[in-house]
Amino acid sequence: MRQLRSTLLLTICCLLLVSCADVRAWERGYLAREEMAWDPDALESSLNDHIFFSKEASSGGNSAAGGGCGCN
Amino acid sequence: MNIKQKSQTLALLVLSAVSSSAWAVEEGDAAPVFDLPSIYADQPAISTASLEGKTIFVDFWASWCAPCLTSLPLYNDMYHKYKDQGLEIVAINVDNPIEDGLDFLLDTPLDFLIPADPDGEAAELFEVIGMPTSYLIEPDGSVKLVHMGFRSGDIEIIEEAIQDSLGGN
User: Quick check: A10 and B123 CB within 8 A?
Assistant: First the structure.
């Protein structure tokens, strides 16, 4: 059973390796593009956060203070 | 096959996957031959064959690479200083689309040869593993210097190698 588990783990590791993309040095410009950023538009993202915590009455997760009144 | 053997096989697989840089062009190797169109539509193609017998400084650059943009005006000065002694500078632009490179050249005109390599054909031949990377190629076609990155003081190292190569002509 232990050997089967190890073989399965090794197989999964090998399969994961297949999904690794090799970004060559001259292709790194793609990573520098705006659309590749985690947060392409800081202003829009901050507005969305504000709407989210106001509507969901939740705050803190996005380092914003407030009780859900939407007034801050 | 026991667990130890399997682990070793896996380690070998990982090593072979990450060791592609082992085939990069190194000092003393014969420089790869390339033939690329100029970044400027109205200028002829640039090939190593047309530069035979010259000391060639090949530099791979892109508009998104900050150290590349720092180095290029310095290479332009160096080109004017040594072109009469037989130095040719070929700054291969790897921007895709090439308009990104052309935008930079609008603000910073450069007088040496600038081929466009948007698909990375020449970069693949040289096995470039970092940007910028430059290669000083002797008149006999061998690589004298491989230089990766560009920091303060690097221009002196490159100029010294160029002087050395031109002195041997």
Answer: no
Tokens of B155: 């221009």
Q: Is A5 on the interface with B (CB under 8 A)?
A: no
B50 closest CA partner among B113, B106, B142: B113
pLDDT in tens for each of the 169 residues of chain B?
666 776 677 666 655 555 544 578 999 999 999 999 999 999 999 999 899 999 999 999 999 999 999 999 999 999 999 999 999 999 999 999 999 999 999 999 999 999 999 999 999 999 999 999 999 999 999 999 999 999 999 999 999 999 999 986 5
The upper half-sphere exposure of residue B122, i.e. CA atoms within 13 Å in the direction of its Cβ, equals: 27
Q: Which 8-state DSSP code applies to residue B153?
A: T
For B9, name the nearest residue in chain A, comparing CA atoms only: A10
- Per domain, the residue ranges of chain A are 30-56
What is the pTM (predicted TM-score) of this model? Answer: 0.75
Cβ distance of B128 and A27 shorter than 8 Å: no
Beta bridge partners of residue B47, listed in sequence order: B35
Using CB atoms and an 8 Å cut-off, which of residues 6-45 of chain A contact chain B?
6-7, 10, 13-14, 17, 20, 22, 24-29, 32
Q: With beta carbons less than 8 A apart as the criterion, state whether B84 and B106 touch.
A: no
